[in-house]
UniProtKB/TrEMBL annotation:
The keyword ATP-binding applies. GO terms for molecular function: ATP binding; ATP hydrolysis activity. This is ABC transporter ATP-binding protein. PANTHER family: ABC TRANSPORTER ATP-BINDING PROTEIN (PTHR45772:SF4), CONSERVED COMPONENT OF ABC TRANSPORTER FOR NATURAL AMINO ACIDS-RELATED (PTHR45772). It holds the Pfam family BCA_ABC_TP_C. The keyword Nucleotide-binding applies. Keywords: ATP-binding, Nucleotide-binding, Transport. Residues 9-256 form the ABC transporter domain. GO terms for cellular component: plasma membrane. SUPFAM superfamilies: P-loop containing nucleoside triphosphate hydrolases (SSF52540). It comes from the Bacteria. It comes from Geodermatophilus sabuli.
């Protein structure tokens, strides 16, 4: 596991309970640069981990650090301002806005001149907006959507909407991107677009990407390291091949009869 002192995200002793139901029970997880996979059965607490990191949920115990700064209990907009972006299992786009406009929402922390400057059309604000529009177009092109940027987001199938939401999260130039099942519901072509776009973006950045996914093939392709969450605890962390062949993981998560296809 990455050294917590240099990790982009460090969870230490995180505990979350809803009533008598303990969802996270002393979770320690350090996430470094590049891709890290977070896998586990439904109800293991994976999305709760993302909610704690992004500020949507305050833990009952433990600490959260982002790029070395403790953010435990801070509201989501404060954590986002530090460079944390996330997606959700169901995409949250504005359906009657174009794909381009939806992605540009992700650049909010890069706009320096405020709403009044935009309202009065000051030259500095226009230059800023043009720059972010250019970046949004480039990012959508990276994900294979460069020729449909003006289409309303609501007119796309759910798989493409999820890719647009990923692009929106990345336009923020996050230090940490939290992706919650981005490939769920995607066809083979969209999965390839997603993988190609994410790989290109991570290669060009120093960011950390924590990705929740049930597609173990995709996790193995993208992530050099994987954490397994089971009953609110991290039970294994390591290389995908090692993790997916670990007897404890096979029995607890994949099932005793599961055989990994070599």
């Amino acid at each position: 596991m990455p050294d917590p002192a240099v990790a982009s995200v460090d969870l230490a002793g995180i505990r979350v309970a809803f009533g008598g139901n303990v969802v996270l029970d002393g979770v320690d997880l350090a996430v470094g640069r590049g891709f890290t996979g977070l896998i586990g059965p439904n109800g293991a607490g994976k999305t709760t981990c993302l909610n704690v990191i992004s500020g949507y949920l305050r833990p009952d115990g433990g600490t959260v650090r982002v790029t070395g700064e403790e953010v435990t209990g801070r509201p989501p907009h404060r954590i986002a301002a530090l460079g944390v972006s996330r997606t959700f299992q169901s995409p949250r786009l504005v359906p009657n806005l174009s794909a381009l406009s939806n992605v540009m929402v992700g650049a909010h922390r890069h706009f320096r001149h405020g709403h009044l400057a935009e309202l009065f059309g000051l030259p500095s604000a226009r230059r800023e907006e043009r720059r972010q529009e250019e970046r949004a177009r480039e990012l959508l092109t990276t994900f294979g959507l460069g020729d449909v940027v003006e289409r309303d987001a609501g007119s796309f199938p759910i798989g493409t909407q999820k890719i647009i939401e990923v692009a929106r999260a990345l336009l923020n130039d996050p230090a940490v991107a939290l992706l919650d099942e981005p490939a769920a519901g995607l066809g083979a072509e969209d999965v390839e677009r997603l993988v190609a776009g994410l790989t290109a973006w991570v290669t060009a950045s120093d960011s950390a990407v924590l990705i929740i996914e049930h597609d173990l093939g995709l996790i193995s392709r993208l992530c050099p390291q994987v954490a397994v969450l089971h009953f609110g605890r991290i039970i294994q962390f390591g290389r995908p091949d090692d993790v997916l062949h670990d007897p404890v993981v096979v029995e607890a998560y994949l099932g005793a009869d599961f055989a990994v296809d070599g």
